[in-house]
């Protein structure tokens, strides 16, 4: 089965496997002790730390290992905030950060701190000046990812850092570490080894010398006092070895994968009706492409593609198991339903991508078939009038049903006519305007459903082009 979900976790790199097996024999002891086995483990741990530090552009004593990238983010955010509490208790982050950052920000606010979420454009990218403008005199920390985990858009990290003054910047480099150079300007950096082909269960937290940091956890002697617990030396050794191997071949592999992703970006809209490719067209990760298929439930599409032999993802792996719309797609103002993320691991072939492009149109058509939906809008002059509004009642139904019903019935009004879609599903607030953007109609805002005969929910108003 072609595996196209490297953004969730990359397959274990062969070098990582070799290093792990070797380190299981040589690095199993406690590196904090003084006997021979412990010294051997310590040498392996120190060498791994040097390797990772060199890859990140850091000093070895600035690097600590955690149990995951998520833990590195959480500890990094809380530790930097606590370290700068004399400055204040205000946190700034983008609206499309990983859920680990957003949940930590929620906890920080619950404990009395404050946080500001900076919006992004339709490509998922922040404006550096707008981000910096959110900084206040009491801002203790700013957080900005290097690249988005759902749509691949690169963020202006270096430009933003230059505008922040003495406010420390935490960079989530999970999706770019090993693939792309680490952007300059970070004060704290977090990453996870399984994203670059290392073993799961190893995260990296780097804190620049001179940056105040106070762990949110009880004191511990290990990992510079930032991360408590016994380090998994064999896994750390494997993570470092694979990072070095991935970096060595990154330039050539990035160029090859970018060509394959460009092919997907170009061909999918030609092969599948009513599709929008999202994310920045140029400033993006080389191996990732995301697109949204109108009138399709993303989980159904994933299941059918899995049956056809392709492992892909829908939006964020951290939210795909819930009914909550992707916060990234919602912040961008694009469709939150029918979303597919294709992220190619190293070694993906053109034949595998061609096979995916052969299968995708059939799978989407089969999923859409029961809807009885004609994707071609009726010609101008079809039945209906512009006086008043056609009411489409989808109360009690989950997206993408409101959008599907809207598409079915908008032809009943003349050009310039208005449709009021009644919905009590929060996702409709994002998906109906996004549908209008894709199909060329005008989104006219929202009103209380009661004004259009509804008993609850909201009326979303659409004017036919």
Report what the structure shows.
- The structure is a single chain.
- Strand 4, helix 6 (157-163) and strand 5 form a beta-alpha-beta unit.
- The protein has helices spanning 14-26, 36-56, 69-83, 99-110, 128-133, 157-163, 233-248, 250-271, 298-307, 327-332, 350-368, 401-409, 428-439; strands at 63-66, 90-94, 114-118, 139-145, 169-172, 188-192, 203-207, 275-278, 288-293, 339-343, 389-393, 418-423, 442-448, 458-463.
- It is of the alpha/beta class.
- The model is unreliable at 316-320 and 376-387 (pLDDT under 50).
- 36% of the residues lie in helices and 16% in strands.
Helix content: 25-40%
Q: Secondary-structure element order, as H and E? A: HHEHEHEHEHEEEHHEEHHEHEHEHEE
Low-confidence stretches: 316-320, 376-387
Major sheet attributes: 7 strands, mixed
Arithmetic mean pLDDT: 92
Q: Please compute the radius of gyration using only Cα atoms.
A: 24 Å
Number of helices: 13
SSE-based structural type: alpha/beta
Strand order of the largest sheet: 1-7-6-5-4-2-3
In whole angstroms, how far apart are the ends?
A: 43 Å
Number of E strands: 14
Strand content: 15-25%
Q: Which geometry do the CA atoms define?
A: globular
